[in-house]
Amino acid sequence: MLQRYIHNTNSVQDSRPQDKRVAGFSDIEYVTETMIDLHTHSTHSDGTLSPDKLIDYACNQGLSAIALTDHDCISGNPIAKKQAEKRGIRFFPGVELEIESVQGSFHLLGLNIHKNDAVLAARLEEVQKKRKTRNREIIKKMQDAGIDVSIEDIASLAGGEVISRLHFALYLINRKKARSVKDAFLRFLSPGGTFFIPKEAMTLSEAVQMIHAAGGKAVIAHPFSLKMNFKNLCNFISGCKESGLDGIEAYHSEYGFTLCSRLEQFAADNGLIVTAGSDFHGEGIKNRKLGKTAGQTPIDDRFLDGLLS
Ligand SMILES: [Zn+2]
Ligand SMILES: [Zn+2]
């Protein structure tokens, strides 16, 4: 029943119930048996709940399964796993990796990385180290240009999030060195800009290999962040399949349901698995509710099929 509900976008979407109730199901039957989430973050990257609190929250929301997918970090997995065992919720260790990309932003989910992840852990430690060095190098360039700035200034703008070029851009705007984020990127932070330092990111093949070695599935997260039109995106994804890509996160909180359904169809036609996630970072972010995806639709456990195939 819920499966049809998910698939039948035209007739059901507009009459979608506003709460957790699905026609024909009581809340209890529904939430305990089907709702899951395969894209979430904890305080180990930029989420607001610690891994164990995230599991508690998922249980309280009635989820039956959850994956933790922190950015370039897997240290939260053992903590979440332990708590999941205690609370009786199915847990999938995961990660969200930043991948080299010439266009947009390319994030790759590693889902169900349940085997030996030592190689991945070591590589991620190296990535983190290189990013810290890069931030210091950008600060040095800014200071050399006469701007009074410290790493603490940028960290306070990031507010606990991983420091990115956006935070440097915001600082430049605050100091009246740039007019807008776009201006800051163009003149200072993009290739050719005064303060540009290349960022450490993995290649797709390297990331896929490590995810597979850890027993996981490699899935492109929120594919539209690649900033391609649908046709180009499909061609791009087909190319990624040759590098070992397993699937796509067709359903994500930020996208319209109909567009997501088109992605699911594309995946089905091309032998790719499909996952769905909220990209939950904690309460308070609009349209990012745990267990809900595109169009605030509850995430059905049918999305576990591909993951476990
Ligand atoms: Zn992402
Ligand atoms: Zn994410």
What report would you give on this structure?
The protein is of the alpha/beta class. It folds into two domains: 2-9 and 21-96 and 107-114 and 216-307, TIM Barrel; 123-213, Orthogonal Bundle (DNA polymerase, domain 1), CATH 1.10.150. 43% of the residues lie in helices and 13% in strands. It has 13 helices and nine strands. The chain has a seven-stranded mixed sheet with strand order 1-2-3-4-5-6-7. Strand 5, helix 11 and strand 6 form a beta-alpha-beta unit. It starts with a helix and ends with a helix. Mean pLDDT is 87; it is low at 1-32.
Broad CATH class of the largest domain = Alpha Beta
**Known CATH architecture of the largest domain:** Alpha-Beta Barrel
Strand element count: 9
Poorly predicted segments = 1-32
From the 3D structure, determine the CATH topology of the largest domain: TIM Barrel
- Distinct ligand kinds: zinc ion
Through-space gap between termini = 22 Å
Helical amount: 40-55%
What is the arithmetic mean of pLDDT? 87
CATH superfamily of the largest domain: Metal-dependent hydrolases
Sheet-strand content, in percent, reads 5-15%
Evaluate the radius of gyration.
20 Å
Largest pleated sheet: 7 strands, mixed
Tally of individual helices: 13
